[in-house]
Amino acid sequence: MIDLSERLGVNVRLVRSEEGWMIELGEDVVSSKPQPRYISELKPVLRNQDANTPHILYWMFRDVRVKEDESTLRSRVPLLRYDISLFVPGVMSVDGCEKEGDEFVKAFGHYHPYLRGKDLTFPEVYEVAYGRVLFLLQQPEDVFQPKEGIRRVIIVEVDAMDERKLVVIPPNFGHVAIVVGDEPVVTSNWVARNFDSQYAPFALMRGAAYYIVKKGNGWAYEPNPNYPRLPSPEVINSASLETFGVPTDSPIYVACLREPSKFQFLIEPS
Fold it and tell me: Which pTM does this prediction carry?
C-alpha cells in the first residue's frame, strides 16, 4: 500500500489488486463510479491494433471530493471537476509477448471543444502524484479537421519525484498521457465540468501525431503516418512548461480550494 494523501491533498492510497493496482479512496472521500478503460476500447488509436494486453489500461475516478469540502466546492468552483486516474505500467502487446517497438500504455487521447463564440478550447491542469509519464501535446490547424495538419507537438516528461509535477494543457492543444516507467502512474486534474471531450479526431487519425514506443531500456517517438505533415516534437520537462499562474507549492486540489481565482482560466481562457 502506498499512501498518496500528502501528494494529492486527498485521502487516497495505491493498493495491489487482482488486476495489479487499484486506487482506494478514504472513507472521507467520494467520487463517481470508477470507470475502467480496456485495451479493446483503444483499438482505434493503437499502432498495433492486434495488441490485446494488458486487459485494463487505466481507471478514471471522476468528480473526486472530500465530503466536508462539498459545500465549499459548490460555492467556489461550481463549474470545475476534480478527477484522479490510475494507469498500469508496461507496453501494449499481443498475448503479453513484449517486443521492441511496442507502444507504451497510454490514454485514448482527446481534444476539448471550443468555447462558445471563441476560437479557444478549454484548457486543463494535471498533476502527477506517482510514477513517470509523458504528456504528448499537439496543436492542430483545426481541432475538428485533424487531416489539415499539426502545427506543434510538445512531449513533456514528468516524474512524481520532480520538484514541479504540474502540466497545463493550453487552449487548442489535444493531449494524451503515456506511461514510460516501470511503476503505475497516478494523475489528478482539474477541468471544466460542462463539456464533452472530443475523442473522434484522435480515432480518425489512429492516435496522436507520434507513437511512444519501447526502445532498449527507454522510449522513442515514432511518427504516425496517418498525419499529412508533422513538425519535430519539442521534448521538455515539466519545469519548462508554462503554468498559467497555477500555484505549485501545494497539491492542485488544495490550491484550488485555497485560491479558486487561480483556476478561473480553466473556464474563461484568454
Answer: 0.96
